[in-house]
Design brief:
It contains three helices and seven strands; from the N terminus they run βααββββββα. By secondary structure, it is an alpha+beta fold.
């Protein structure tokens, strides 16, 4: 079993919330002034302010998503668990639709592992931990290939296991 913790910074979440609220308040003041009757000739500017207001709301709400908080990954032999702030998600290795390891030119600085499950995408960053990334990728690749081969053998035999 391999455990990996991805730490997210609290300051980043608070910055997104502050910037989102600031953009929303400034744009809402333009929209309210237009509705009250000031600046009736600035219809296009009010439309742009409305779009920026929606973007500010998006930034604010997006700071509460589960990916903005710390995530713990627990890779077991049969499945893996993703522990987020809003609960745990258990996935089998056969659920993985795509998996990649990104190694930049200067491979000693950082490395990434991308895991795609359906429409969800999980990215595990490894700063100055290339050996850990290689070990985890080899572990995951072995499990995914084993699950894929087992499922293809089940399809060929029609779901019946044969003991030879």
């Amino acid at each position: 079993m391999i455990n990996y913790h991805v730490k997210k910074k609290r300051r980043t979440r608070y910055t997104f919330r502050f910037v989102g609220l600031a953009i929303t308040v400034i744009c809402m003041s333009q929209i309210v002034a237009f509705v009250i009757g000031y600046g009736q000739n600035h219809k296009f500017g009010t439309f742009i302010a409305g779009l920026f207001c929606l973007y500010g709301i998006y930034l604010f709400l997006n700071s509460f998503r589960s990916g903005a908080y710390d995530i713990d990954y627990e890779f077991r032999d049969a499945d893996f668990v993703i522990h987020t702030r809003y609960g745990d998600k258990v996935h089998k290795y056969s659920d993985i639709t795509d998996m990649n390891q990104v190694i930049p030119e200067n491979e000693m600085v950082y490395s990434l592992i991308q895991i795609v499950i359906g429409k969800k995408q999980y990215i595990l960053p490894f700063s100055y931990k290339k050996e850990v990334a290689d070990k985890l990728y080899a572990f995951l690749n072995e499990r995914v290939v084993t699950q894929t081969l087992d499922s293809s053998m089940d399809m060929e035999t029609g779901g019946e296991k044969t003991d030879d």
